[in-house]
Amino acid sequence: MPGFSNESRNLTMMTDLYQLTMMYGYFRHGMGENQAVFDLFYRKAGDTIAHALAAGLEQVIEYIEHIHFAEVDIQYLRSLNLFDESFLKYLGELKFTGSIDAAPEGTLVFPGEPIVRVTAPLMQAQLIETSILNIINHQTLIATKASRVVQAAQGGGVLEFGLRRAQGPDAGIYGARAAIIGGCVATSNVLTGMIYNVPARGTHAHSWVMSFPSELEAFRAYARVFPDNCLLLVDTYDTLNSGVPNAIQVFRELRERGYEGTGIRLDSGDLAYLSRASRKMLDAAGFPSVKIFASGDLDEEVIWDLKAQGAEIDVWGVGTKLITSAGTTALGGVYKLAAEEVDGVMEPRLKISENPAKITNPGVKTVYRVYDNATGRALADLIALADEHYDENEPLTLFDPDHTWKRMTVSNYRLRELLVPIFKNGELVYKCPTLYEIQEYAKTELASLWEEYKRLHMPHVYKVDLSQKLWDLKQGLLNRHRAGK
């Protein structure tokens, strides 16, 4: 990608030091080439991420394709006096040779189920943990936040306006990318627009209006430069007594020249009241097609309330609270060992915790989405061992893994495996779709979910179940642990 590609930035050293110290330990104990399987998944942290839209896979691919330790990296690691020369030589020759399966970007995912599955030599799988968590956690979080904002807008367009408040350039650029996946129609970020071929939008700020002798002169000057895209910010001085009347005057002058005004923007004040009053003024003046844009510390909560109050707003510009995912500052994605080769045999691994929510699911797993054929809607997700196979002509019994008496049996259903091959033995086997193809896919994913699961507050809990075989494996390992074996 021109101008901002991981190809031009070696991100191999973007890792935590303990990944390298563990790698060195594995290396010294002769374990480093043993095959291992790691799962990347997120834990539930409040209603805002009770479901999520997977995002960031394209950047993970770029990262994996260009993993290598440059000489300057080796020199720095040597200066830490932690590693011997044989290990540094290994790092200097390292390339990723493993396999990765993942949910495509835009896939609807739920807590506890693998989003990415890495199968690779143990040292390689350990090295990439930090970077892929960084990428997937961030973009999935922002895509999910954006989808909530878009949902609240109820069909109104949402523009991503967050670059100035993002936590750095990468967060601004990739956050805007993720916001498009979540359903935003455009971004203010010009570089994101260029890299990903998405619309960049923006007109003028209050400083433009303040730079002219009067608001009317400022509006006229802007209309002269952009007659066919004249959107005026009307709240610099007095929205209803100055801004909107002056905008109407300029729109009349544009019409006389053969152009139509595009819109007005409200950035402060009581947006519900001001938008309703502005709509009446515009309509009365003969400009029903002029759109009303709104911005100013908006998020899904504010937008939902404004819609409930009858706000006449067509397009929403959402910045700080979208790009920073205000209210939920981290996804909580983790990367856990699920299986490891011992003496040539792949053995399941189980992390045990005093906190039941942190006990992992062992073994090499995949995820199936169960759809009701009659409605096309998703019924549940089933986490199963990768070697399990199901006949859709046979009834399927699903049960709650914690409350096993809660069961249902479905007959008229179909299954879709969510994880698809991305890398096989170090070779890329997946073609990334365009950003708007991902956005459309995300829309179909969300549309497959019943409305009660998508409520902004206290959504109904979607079923994520374990197969009987996986449940038995997990319980067996827990019992062995309790028995001290």
For the biggest β-sheet, the strand order reads 13-12-1-5-3-19-20
**Gap between N and C termini:** 52 Å
What does the radius of gyration come to?
26 Å
CATH superfamily of the largest domain: nicotinate phosphoribosyltransferase
Q: Quickly give the structural class.
A: alpha/beta
- Annotation, overall tally of beta strands: 21
* CATH class type of the largest domain: Alpha Beta
Shape descriptor: globular
Average pLDDT value?
95
Can you count the helices? Answer: 16
Question: Layout of helices and strands, plus pairs?
Answer:
Blueprint: H1 17-28, E1 35-42, E2 52-53, H2 57-65, H3 71-79, H4 85-92, E3 99-102, E4 108-109, E5 116-121, H5 122-127, H6 129-153, E6 157-160, H7 169-181, E7 186-187, H8 190-196, H9 206-210, H10 215-225, E8 231-233, H11 239-256, E9 263-266, H12 271-284, E10 291-294, H13 300-308, E11 315-318, H14 320-323, E12 333-342, E13 345-348, E14 365-372, E15 378-385, E16 396-399, E17 407-410, E18 413-417, E19 420-424, E20 427-428, H15 435-447, E21 464-466, H16 468-482
Parallel strand pairs: 6-7, 6-11, 8-9, 9-10, 10-11, 15-21
Antiparallel strand pairs: 1-5, 1-12, 2-4, 3-5, 3-19, 12-13, 14-15, 14-18, 16-17, 19-20
